[in-house]
């Protein structure tokens, strides 16, 4: 986390406008009491006393701390038009655990200005660890991501982007740096930047694109998003940026298939099956987010079936182990009984011989006495 600079600390004097029903960003003298069962994040974003500047990342972005809590926000400053303002307002109503939400904004413009565009500071959750950084961090020790975590990443991101698809919104700006790992909630989350795509389309485009199949049909943006997310997840699974399979923007099929073979060795089964469908080079066969849900469900059912089979096999093995143990115990008891019997037979014979000697001695004594 970025350290705070004492000189740079400053309380904001501009009014912060409430643009969502979920959060109430009102500056107050002291934090209010937390309500029973209130989400910690919701509490911090509604009970803070001030926003304290921490550090500038670029000329248009900075990090702020939600005082007095250890919660950080990213602030993006830009000139936006009314359509973009409306789009941001609409998106603050959208809630999904795998989406990074816009929280609130500050209107920095002169309120008497007649200019249609306005300078806004837009605040959203700050997550310091993106997938690109995660790959660099794990690749140093070759610490591959567990299969369950990769699966949760597929489920979470596909569900978030299906959420956008149902609202008619494609992301179309997916990169290794636009998907983050939330270390607090252990979730992979994606930031929707679609409101600003029209202004700077060259800045907002997918990092990984499939090969053009030669048709003149308009590309399906949702299917392109599926391909790009599949490549991003593949990069994390292999701990390498898959940009090296492109040559001057053209995907190299040989290198692409080599990566899929490595994936098969590392994550055979459901992860490999789903990722292969996501990065299918056939633009017609590749699913959109809605169709991908059916594939995920099918693989989930297969996994449940495999788990049940494994459970049955384990139970059968346990039963066989129990039977073997019982047989071993029974055999051991029989052996011990035979040994005891043999020991008992030897003791009885000794007693019989001793009794004979006693009887012989008594008979000799009685004969002497009679004489």
UniProtKB/TrEMBL annotation:
Q: Name one GO molecular function term.
A: ATP binding
Chain ranges of the Protein kinase domain: 37-296
* PANTHER family given in the database record: SI:DKEY-192D15.2-RELATED, TYROSINE-PROTEIN KINASE C03B1.5-RELATED
Descriptive protein name: Protein kinase domain-containing protein
Q: What species is this protein from?
A: Paramecium primaurelia
């Amino acid at each position: 986390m970025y350290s705070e600079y004492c000189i740079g600390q400053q309380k904001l004097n501009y009014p912060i406008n409430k643009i969502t029903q979920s959060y109430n960003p009102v500056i107050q003298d002291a934090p209010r009491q937390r309500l029973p069962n209130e989400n910690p994040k919701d509490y911090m974003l509604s009970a803070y006393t001030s926003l304290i500047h921490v550090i500038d990342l670029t000329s248009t972005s900075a990090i702020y701390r939600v005082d007095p809590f250890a919660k950080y926000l990213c602030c993006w400053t830009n000139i936006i038009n009314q359509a973009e303002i409306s789009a941001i307002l609409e998106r603050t109503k959208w809630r999904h655990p795998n989406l990074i939400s816009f929280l609130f904004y500050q209107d920095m413009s002169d309120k008497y200005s007649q200019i249609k565009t306005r300078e806004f500071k837009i605040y959203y959750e700050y997550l310091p660890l993106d997938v690109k950084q995660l790959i660099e961090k794990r690749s140093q020790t070759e610490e591959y991501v567990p299969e369950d975590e990769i699966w949760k990443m597929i489920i979470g991101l596909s569900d978030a982007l299906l959420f956008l698809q149902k609202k008619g919104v494609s992301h179309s700006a997916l990169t290794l740096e636009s998907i983050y790992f939330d270390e607090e909630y252990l979730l992979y989350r994606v930031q929707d930047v679609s409101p600003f795509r029209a202004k700077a389309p060259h800045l907002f485009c997918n990092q990984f694109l499939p090969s053009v199949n030669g048709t003149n049909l308009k590309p399906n943006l949702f299917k392109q998003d599926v391909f790009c997310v599949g490549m991003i997840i593949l990069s994390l699974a292999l701990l390498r940026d898959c940009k090296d399979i492109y040559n001057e923007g053209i995907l190299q099929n040989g290198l692409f298939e080599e990566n899929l073979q490595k994936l098969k060795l590392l994550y055979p089964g459901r992860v490999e099956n789903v990722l292969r469908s996501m990065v299918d080079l056939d633009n017609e066969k590749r699913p959109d987010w809605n169709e991908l849900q059916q594939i995920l469900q099918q693989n989930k059912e297969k996994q449940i079936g495999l788990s049940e089979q494994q459970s049955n096999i384990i139970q059968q093995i346990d039963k066989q182990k129990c039977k073997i143990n019982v047989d071993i115990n029974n055999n051991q008891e029989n052996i011990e009984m035979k040994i005891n019997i043999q020991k008992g037979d030897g003791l009885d014979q000794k007693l019989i011989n001793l009794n004979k000697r006693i009887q012989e001695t008594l008979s000799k004594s009685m004969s002497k006495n009679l004489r």
